[in-house]
Amino acid sequence: MNALLQHVLGMLLALHGCQAVPKAGLAWPNGPYVDISQFTTGGGISWYYTWSPESGNIAADLEFVPMLWGYDQVADFSANINQTIANNHVSHILAMNEPEQTAQSNMTPAEGAQMWQTYLEPLRAQGVLLGSPAPSSAPAGLTWIQDFLTACNGGCTVDFIALHYYDVNATAFQEYLENFYNTFQRPLWITEWACENYNNVNAQCSPDDIVSFMNQTKGFMDSSSFVERYAWFGAMENMQGVNPDDALMDSSGKINALGEQYIGTQMASNGSSSPGVTVSGGHSRTISWTMTAFAAFLGISIS
Q: What's the pLDDT tens digit per position in 129-187?
């Protein structure tokens, strides 16, 4: 029996030694003009996107995920996407940005289905996985995706659902994601999220609120199997109307304390955390405690 237990422990230790690919990514509009390597310290970031089909000439060992943002990018996307896939070993592609919003990609579900079937669906033949258009967190967002899938009439292979979320309550965020997953039964990518109050612009999150919100929401996503990837808004100097305290860098492009928290090299400054989840790396402490106790039971010391 002891030999069997030691075999099981060996398997657990092997699994413990395997580092899961981080879910965290960067929504990156900065091209090569801001040093992206400051965000890759510690290995907490695995991918990035640029809201476009262009990789931005980034010198970093990160997976690039192209996007077909909307009508404005159709010519560039269709002319270059095949070469981009080949040059960057692309495995995933994102679709239209907030299509239900008139100030964003602004299209009907039927127009979105036509764009998808013309420019995105053929890329499945190259083995890439396709993410849905990413709606805003306005009430019309989920309905737009439902109507889009209906308009596709089975002709759109949507491998994962992309979505955005801007609000101030971490519990509401969790419920929002659960509702999207239960509705569409596909993995989720949260390609923009931040602590931003669009309902009352004079009641924005404080820096401490943001630290807590990031910690709780990031911990939830790291521990949720139905969330595959996420990217905070934003890794940029100009926050484009979003609460500037949500920025992951200062005005000179240098990573700040929130950025350090996001990439997992600094614990949340207010000490808040979700049960059983570490901020850095998003790995559950429970696994380590369980293996340590199991090893002690067998009289084996592990570090």
A: 999 999 999 999 999 999 999 999 999 999 999 999 999 999 999 999 999 999 999 99
| 293 shares a domain with 237 | no
Alpha-carbon gap, residue 124 to 49, rounded angstroms? 19
pLDDT tens-place string over residues 192-233: 999 999 988 789 999 999 999 999 999 999 999 999 999 999
> Are 144 and 187 contained in the same domain?
yes
CA atoms within 13 A on the CB side of 190: 28
User: How far apart (Å, rounded) are the C-alpha atoms in residues 28 and 50?
Assistant: 5
- Residues 135, 15 within the same domain: no
Interior/surface letters 250-275, b for 16+ CB within 10 angstroms, e for the rest: eeeeebeebbbbbbbbbbbeeebbbe
Alpha carbon separation from 169 to 122, 138, 201, 210 (Å, rounded): 39, 15, 15, 10
Q: Are residues 60 and 127 in the same domain?
A: yes
Structural domain containing residue 117: 22-281
Q: Would you put residue 283 in left (φ > 0), alpha (ψ -120 to 50) or beta?
A: beta
Angle at 235 between CA 233 and CA 240, to 5 degrees: 60
In this structure, are 181 and 296 located in the same domain?
Answer: no
Q: Are 69 and 109 found together in one domain?
A: yes
Exposure string for 234-243, b = 16+ CB within 10 A, e = fewer: bbbbebeebb
Q: Check whether residue 120 and residue 222 sit in a common domain.
A: yes
- Alpha carbon distance 186, 183 (integer Å): 9
Quote the DSSP letter at residue 117. I
Return the pLDDT at 202: 83
Let me know whether 126 and 30 are in one domain: yes
